[in-house]
Amino acid sequence: MSISTFIRDTILRPRLQKARCLVVYDPDRIYRDVVGELASDEVTVVDASEHGIESRERAIETFVRLTSFGTSMLVYVPKAPPKSDHERAIDPYALYAVTGAMFPDGDGDEYLSLCLKAKPDHTTEIRRLFEENTCPSFELVDNIGGGIGYPALRTLLEVDSARNILHALLAPTEKQLGKLKKDSSWVTEAHTLLKAALGLKLATRGKSWSAIGDELWRYILFSEFAFDLPSELPAALASVPHAAVEAEPLVLDLCDTLRSDSRTRQVYIDNAERIERDLNLVKTCTDIDDLGRLDTFPFEERTFLLSAIGALKENRLDDIRKLVDRHRDSVWLGKGESQAQWGLVSSAHRLVEACNDAERNLSDHTRDMVSLVNFYTSSLREIDRLQREFEQEVGEYISVDEMLDDVIEHARGRYARIAEKVQCIFTKHLEVTGWPPTNELANVDLFDKIISPLLSDRGHRIAYFMVDALRYELGLELHRQLVDTGNVEVRPAFAQFPTVTPVGMASLLPGAGQKLRIERNGNEIVAILDKERITSVKQRMKVFETLYGDRFGEMTLSKFMETKKTNISKSIDLLVLRSTEIDSHLENNPDSTLGLVHQTLKSIRVATHRLKGAGFTDVVIATDHGFYLNGHATAGDLCAKPEGGDWVNVHDRALVGEGAGDMQNFAVPAEKVSIRGNFSKFCAPKSMAPYRRGLRFFHGGPSLQEAIVPVITVRLQDGAKDEKPIATVELTYKDGSKRITTRLPVVDLIVHSGDMFSQEAELEIRLEAHDKDGKVIGEARRGDPVDPGTGTLTLMPGQRQQVTIRMDEEFEGKFTLKALNPDTLVEYASIPLETDYAV
What we know:
six-stranded mixed sheet
């Protein structure tokens, strides 16, 4: 293989295919012809050496068109790559390198390194050539060695370079392995090649591929470990054979290729784990603080994880970002347990960073209640989303050691501090201005202002979701999932105090703005609408039935989902779908059921799609109240009730009755917070604490998280996207294995285009494991690459992705892993599997 062909097909083409935009900087002008050879119908080459302004314009035009799948842009720039921020700022092509990739990128891309990789069996001659000429021509490099060496190996393995021979000896295909086992004529050539290319003098006397392969693997991996180690090797490892520095480019290239290629990744993992055990690296390297940048062996990945944990605890956020980014594609994240640990650290990092940003910006938004509320609905609510996702990671993390305990406490403490600071500002404004903010949508007016006008038009059929505990940030997640369903809008609304289900659900009824009262009845409170007690679901539904008669229908969301065929009478113009799953799950056990919250969002998404098919024109999604996740509950957060007075405790977060506030509690006239009732005062903690110790989840009181809720409206027949792209999905597990040995198995997922039109379309996929009864007993672990909000991942045709599946801890037996359409739950692909671990 010529050096130009090697650079074109082994270096530039793969990088371009992965990034779709590649900038080649070439101050010596040696790669111009190679770049030009990559031009095709799919690859546009922009040559900046020809016409400066025209090249810039062409680059911009081409870059804009890169949204089309299968097209790529290669920019050739005949100057050195920018090194400083100033140089990048004035380089018109630096933007494309940032959004895509660049060449050269690191020492491994130096011309000398490329030549050493291409001709690893001629390192001495190549180095001598470069000493005489710092930039020799391709012809000079190609002339080194002359002829075609290693004929037996080239013929058996059907490869055309020494580098590819080494790769095949390490990880042969089935066809190559069969030939190596059948014919031993290659062994002598292998001895010669390994000595010339790597300096490896084989110690084994065996002539089988397995014996030579095992020694080669140990030599290659230990050599990379030694090259990457900033310090000297420990005395116990000093005698272990490894390559000289001349072979470093080749060693690093082989290891990187073996790790990154899905076809050889598992072979790499198996050999690295074996060699780590054989050399006792964990014990031997215990005292080494800095192991370099690469995680050749699995024990190194543990040390990098510990470094990330330390950086987080010390608030060195830039350091942890670098560590997380560096190991985002680590081969060891193919192990589900490692992926979960790094995912938890990454989630904690995002939360802490967002809390820091929120605190820096908070002072600009504390002037009054309106300013604070606007800040919350526009950006501050992001810390609630990140905290919920973090707590979900914590709840799903299967702990095998205590190394992440400090991470959990640090992130929880950071969120608690900013939440408490915001709460104190909120309650101060509340005492002054009351609730809700003027000229804003209150939940008590929602039905009359949004739904009633639609029902007055006989052409509208409305599905009204009454969802318990859908707090504002969750509403935004749901809005994001519904954007393909029709014209979707989300806006904040303001919950009725106290923020409990009986009051909140009554506030969503017709006429609540004018007729709802909350009255004290002994040690309880009761919602009263138009002089009628509303204490049950049946009574709430009776209000609708009285007003709309046969035009009204209702059922639970779960029942609607269980019905395979949507068979709703065409006379029904108002269908109420009720969901209490979020509140009930979190009330009972927030630590272990937080991950079930998204199941409700999934059901609403699928139900909305089905409602369109059933002839409904509009969907309105509303909720009674939000909630607060109290991760620091075990620290003893508790608010003491005010002494004296005559109070009714409402859900451990609010008091109604008679009395005065104190240092820990505020008390305001009931009418000031829009409560009509038979008591004069509404009282609640000033802090983000309940009246009962140890609550991990609560609502009932006044806080941004409890009292600001979403209202989502969907026009189903305007601009909806009915059809998903035609594509096929392929699911595999460990090259066809049918048994999983861990509760966090990693599966491979690839999307193939079904026709020429689907090549440009993304495909959104939900991965779920179902038992024989169709019950979900496992799903994709949330976090990169799986969207934490939707629980789905999006792939382009031709894209391959590894995904960790989180299995239910109590499940064992046979199951089916399915790739599903998230809108309809139609199956794209499936594979039968079985557990093989002790429960």
